[in-house]
Amino acid sequence: MSQKQRKILLGISGGIAAYRSLELIRLLVKGGHLVRVVMTPNAGHFVTPLSVETLSGAPVSMEMFGRRGEAAIEHIDLATWPDVTVVAPATANILGKFANGIADDLLSTTLCALRQDIPVCIAPAMNTRMWTNPAVQRNLSLLRSDLGRRLTVVDPVEKLLACGEWGVGAMAEPTTIFETILSCFK
Ligand SMILES: Cc1cc2nc3c(=O)[nH]c(=O)nc-3n(C[C@H](O)[C@H](O)[C@H](O)COP(=O)(O)O)c2cc1C
Q: How many whole angstroms separate alpha carbon 81 and alpha carbon 88?
C-alpha cells in the first residue's frame, strides 16, 4: 500500500449507478482503506446491503431509527468518523437535501452533521433532463459555493444512459472517483 490508510465514508443513494459503487468499494478496500457505507433506503432497491457488506467488510448503515448496540447516535458517530466522505452515486434528491440542510434519512442527516473541514466528494448520476434541471444545478452551485467546505464534484459524463437516452448524466468511472478521493489528501 503506497498511500496512507484512510477512513472513507461512502454514501450510496438510489440511482441506477448504485451497482457501480460496488466497484468503487472494491478499489478502496484493495487500496488498503477502511470503508463504511451508508445507504439510503431507496439505494436498497438497486444494490443489496449484503453485497455492500461483503465487499466493504463492515456493516452497512441504513436506518435512521434502527436499534444499535455500540453507537447510540449513529449519524453523529458516522459524521465524526471519516477522513473523507463520498456520495456515489448522488441522486438529484440527495444533492438537494445536502445543499439545503435537509435531514430526513440516515445519509442526509449524516451529511448535515459532517464537520466543515472533512473533504467531501460527490459523484452525481441521473438522467440528462434531471441533470440540466435548473433546480438541480442551483443546488450544485449552492454546494460549490460553500467556501468553508472542501467539496469536489466529480462531474457525470456523456454516454448512452440506462434510460436509453444519450446525454450527460452517467456517473463518472469508479477509477476516476477513486483517484479524486485520494487527491483530497495531496
Ligand atoms: C429505475 C430507476 C432509476 C433511477 N435512477 C436515478 C438516477 O440515476 N439518478 C437520480 O437522481 N434518481 C434516479 N431515480 C429516482 C430516485 O430513485 C428517486 O428520486 C429517489 O427518491 C431517490 O432517493 P434517495 O436520494 O433517498 O436515494 C431512479 C428511479 C428508478 C425507479
A: 18
